[in-house]
Amino acid sequence: MSNRSAGWRRSVLLSICGLLSTAASAQNLTNGQINTVSARLAEAALQSWELGTRSQTILELNATAYSVFSNTFLPPPEVIPSELANDNVMAPFFSIARQIVSNRTRLNNNTVGPQPLMPDGSAADPASNGICVLIANWTGQDAGELDYEGAARDQLDYLLTRVPKTGDGAISHRESQVQLWNDFVYMVPPFLAYYGVMTRNRTLVAESYNQIKLYRNYLRDDRQGMWQHILLGSSGNDPGFWSTGNGWAAAGMLRVLATIRQSEYANTFRNEQRDLGNWVREIHSSIYRHLDETNIFTNYADQPPTASGNFYDAASTALLAATVYRAALMLDQYTYLPYAERSRSTLSNSNSTSSSNETSTFDNYEHFTSDGWLRPVVNPHSYGQEGSESAEGQAFVVQMHAAWREWVQDGSKGANTAMNLKLKKLIMGLALGAVLVLVL
Ligand SMILES: *[C@@H]1O[C@H](CO)[C@@H](O)[C@H](O)[C@H]1NC(C)=O
Ligand SMILES: *[C@@H]1O[C@H](CO)[C@@H](O)[C@H](O)[C@H]1NC(C)=O
Ligand SMILES: *[C@@H]1O[C@H](CO)[C@@H](O)[C@H](O)[C@H]1NC(C)=O
Ligand SMILES: *[C@@H]1O[C@H](CO)[C@@H](O)[C@H](O)[C@H]1NC(C)=O
Ligand SMILES: *[C@@H]1O[C@H](CO)[C@@H](O)[C@H](O)[C@H]1NC(C)=O
Ligand SMILES: *[C@@H]1O[C@H](CO)[C@@H](O)[C@H](O)[C@H]1NC(C)=O
Ligand SMILES: *[C@@H]1O[C@H](CO)[C@@H](O)[C@H](O)[C@H]1NC(C)=O
Ligand SMILES: *[C@@H]1O[C@H](CO)[C@@H](O)[C@H](O)[C@H]1NC(C)=O
């Protein structure tokens, strides 16, 4: 058999396998399993951006009235609605704000005035906790003891006046040198937009968009469409198309868009809202081209898993799927739903026959350990290496689940795209099979 026909056989086999796996495994994670994933998230989230990401995740799953993705008008209720108060589901959320604000003066060596919420080599990551602190202030969690408002203002002023910038005004992701990371889009602009909405400061809302626009100008690759990970600065660049970073960028843009849309500024900033929607689509259309038959992205999406330093990464896969459900709900963008559904279903798939819809455990899951850790995952503290027990990976699974759940409640709109695609695949597969039988 020639190499060429061996290659053909393999690709036919792969597409048939792909077909069977989409057909056979329409499995969902249960609420109990999502709580197990959440428990691992709570244990693992210690770094600034991990806490910030966890705080948003708590809202998206358990306190949706305070998530920008809900239909709550912003600013949100100052009095916590009774169903949330009675169940105390926001306690872990407020605990994050309380710990950060109680510790910050000591950890920042008694700095007064502009300062990050936590010390960190990253100028941007601590700001991911800013919204949590703003909500603690707004809902009166201070008990006359903690100055949440002052802590949020110091964080804002630090970003605007102390962190170095590019000549055209992009705020650096790092403290020690001007360097732009695509992660920034999740850490800073959503805070600027939320602060602007809470304090009715239009300039800050505009600035959240402006920062995204600047970052996209630097990091987006015209040919690939995806965003590069880290540029500028004298060391530590990463020009690769890091999958998680593209997910951070898409998710951050959706949060800013949602914040504007749920606020008094919804009818202004029209062009900005349109741009943000287009820029999310741009990431989806360029990155989903690289999803192979495993339905899992590689750590650098355009590189094969065999490339040196590359491997499959379920964390970015979950985050990107979450953004596809959000884009469907918010923007009627349905093209990539079949891909997100395949990824979600692959991640949720187990080979055990007896899994009930009540279970909270993970027996025989390819993509979860028995304790509920997502796998395989990039090491979130060393982005070029495979790791284990990733806090952000746990958060992305919960975010994917929360967004999927809302998409189902909303009538699974655009699921027909998925059906059509499956059908197309089936017909293509059969036709290809028939041709091969004739040729070989
Ligand atoms: C998964 O959830 C979807 C949406 O609720 C439902 O239609 C489907 O039947 C569920 N699949 C399984 C195996 O429970
Ligand atoms: C959501 O609430 C459940 C309890 O109802 C809890 O077990 C789980 O940890 C919470 N999830 C998150 C992300 O906080
Ligand atoms: C705050 O400080 C306490 C006591 O040192 C520590 O246990 C906790 O992890 C800190 N939390 C944060 C978020 O800094
Ligand atoms: C606080 O001071 C200690 C001891 O001088 C130093 O190691 C640490 O880096 C300082 N932290 C900050 C955030 O400046
Ligand atoms: C903090 O909360 C108070 C009381 O709700 C509110 O008046 C103030 O605007 C809030 N500050 C910020 C920065 O959101
Ligand atoms: C908006 O916020 C910026 C940054 O804190 C501040 O300089 C400006 O005075 C604020 N504008 C208004 C109208 O409050
Ligand atoms: C599990 O399935 C049973 C039978 O289909 C149903 O009665 C029950 O409500 C389901 N439980 C959950 C938590 O979805
Ligand atoms: C099921 O999946 C687990 C995890 O990937 C694996 O260890 C186990 O061997 C599989 N069992 C069967 C029967 O395929």
From TrEMBL:
Pfam families per the UniProt record, alphabetical: Glyco_hydro_88
SUPFAM superfamilies membership: Six-hairpin glycosidases
GO BP: carbohydrate metabolic process
Keywords attached to this entry: Hydrolase, Signal
Signal peptide location: 1-26
Claim: Hydrolase is one of the keywords in the record: yes
Keyword field contains Phosphoprotein: no
Record InterPro entries: 6-hairpin_glycosidase_sf, 6hp_glycosidase-like_sf, Glyco_hydro_88
GO MF, any single term: hydrolase activity
Name this protein carries in UniProt: Six-hairpin glycosidase
Record organism: Agrocybe chaxingu
